[in-house]
Specification:
CATH topology of the largest domain: Nucleotidyltransferase, domain 5
Structural class: alpha/beta
Largest sheet: 5 strands, mixed
Bound molecules: zinc ion
Strand content: 15-25%
Radius of gyration: 32 Å
Distance between the termini: 39 Å
Helix content: 40-55%
Order of helices and strands: HEEEEEHHHEEEHEHEHHHHHHHHHH
CATH class of the largest domain: Alpha Beta
Number of helices: 16
Number of strands: 10
CATH superfamily of the largest domain: Ribonuclease H-like superfamily/Ribonuclease H
CATH architecture of the largest domain: 2-Layer Sandwich
Number of domains: 4
Length: 396
């Protein structure tokens, strides 16, 4: 291919040839061009016999080159078919009918939407309207979702909620529920709201509910109720990290009640760490501190028992240990220990399922984090459908 031709192909589309170039200001190049005379066929009767009816100039936006806006002014032929006498436009590869931009321009915009810091920068670089960016981005994301996420429920899923923003009217925080496919490691569906009826409404159309055998969830009653009704064959697994965290804020509260001094600073910082990760010196500091506050010591001891429960291997051993732990808790007079005992008894089966399957909800929390970053980058989303598409496409 001669050099001239290569450059023409780079600047123009392969079927076009250049007539003249023009500059508009410092940052816009205008290329006047026409389509090469090729054999065309009538779209109505497929005849190849025609004459030229008229010429028209169309303005088309092309992908920018070295930061310069490229505008193609194409002198297009309108042809009249000799056999059916209808008129038709000559098609140009790379430009869809009735569109005023090339396909590579749109591709560039989509690439920039994913890789630029925010959509405002895309708008500046490609000099197109907000509407164009939004329309083409969300249209493509929806197509991608249909192509990639159009399958039945997987075997193992995780379910969790996160905040989506505030309602304009009531100023209340809006929540949404993320369902994660643990088999293919991707977000599976995002639903606005976290109550059973809302979840039923948005999830009932997905086939294969009976495929689901394991569901990881945190200790939330509405989700427990929903999962037990919606997935008939599923076993629930309570998330390990949520169980371990149950006593943390009680420890913090009790610690705040005690007036701190300089000497106890180190011990106070060690309270939330797992005892097994501490060195002997740190343990000594901690226990000396706890000896002075018996109630705090009791809460701390139960927190440590929970940690050691999760270090057990095997379902039967864990089951016995959990029974022992709840029996010990029954003897305690502290309010928070009673509450904890009630929770552990209520969620006993789900907690013990962890020792059979070793499934945690960590992956769901990870995708929640990605969703949070997306929200931050976009300075918040107003529309839930758009937010849903961004999240579902973020990790494919
Ligand atoms: Zn025809």
């Amino acid at each position: 291919m001669p050099a001239q031709q290569t450059i023409t192909n780079f600047v123009l589309l392969p079927e076009l040839e250049i007539i003249k170039t023009e500059r508009k200001g410092l940052s816009t190049n205008i290329y006047w061009c026409r389509k090469k005379k090729l054999q065309e066929y009538c779209p109505y009767c497929a005849s190849g016999d025609y004459w030229t009816h008229e010429y028209r100039v169309i303005t088309v936006k092309d992908a920018p080159i070295r930061g310069k806006e490229i505008i193609l002014k194409i002198r297009k032929r309108r042809l009249r078919c000799k056999s059916c006498f209808k008129t038709f436009n000559e098609p140009i590869n790379g430009i869809l009918p009735k569109k005023r931009f090339t396909q590579r321009f749109k591709r560039g915009v989509l690439w920039a939407c994913e890789n630029y810091k925010n959509l405002k920068r895309v708008k500046k670089a490609f000099r197109c309207s907000n509407q164009f960016i939004y329309d083409s981005l969300y249209e493509t994301l929806e197509l991608n979702r249909r192509r990639n996420l159009n399958y039945a429920w997987p075997k193992t899923i995780g379910i969790d909620e996160h905040a989506f923003g505030r309602s304009v009217k009531s100023r209340r925080t809006r929540f949404c529920t993320m369902l994660v496919d643990f088999v293919n490691k991707r977000p599976f569906e995002l639903v606005e709201g976290r109550s059973g009826p809302l979840l039923w409404k948005d999830l009932a159309h997905i086939p294969g509910r009976e495929n689901v055998t394991h569901v990881a969830l945190d200790l939330s009653d509405p989700y427990k109720k929903f999962v037990s009704e919606f997935f008939p064959n599923a076993e629930m697994v309570a998330d390990k990290f949520h169980v371990l965290r149950l006593l943390n804020h009680h420890i913090m509260r009790r610690r705040k009640e005690i007036t701190g001094d300089r000497a106890s600073k180190q011990a106070r910082d060690l309270l939330l760490m797992s005892n097994i990760n501490l060195g002997w010196k740190e343990r000594k500091t901690l226990w000396e501190y706890l000896d002075r506050y018996p109630e705090l010591k009791e809460v701390y001891a139960f927190k440590e028992s929970l940690h050691s429960l999760y270090r057990i291997r095997g379902y039967n051993k864990a089951s016995k240990a959990l029974t022992k732990l709840t029996d010990r808790m029954a003897k305690s007079n502290l309010k928070e220990i009673k509450t904890l005992r009630a929770t552990l008894v209520k969620w006993r089966d789900e907690i013990l399922n962890y020792f059979k399957t070793r499934i945690t909800n960590a992956r769901t929390e990870g995708f929640n984090h990605i969703a949070k970053l997306l929200k931050r980058n976009a300075f918040g989303f107003k529309s839930f459908p758009n937010y849903r598409l961004r999240v579902l496409n973020a990790a494919i």
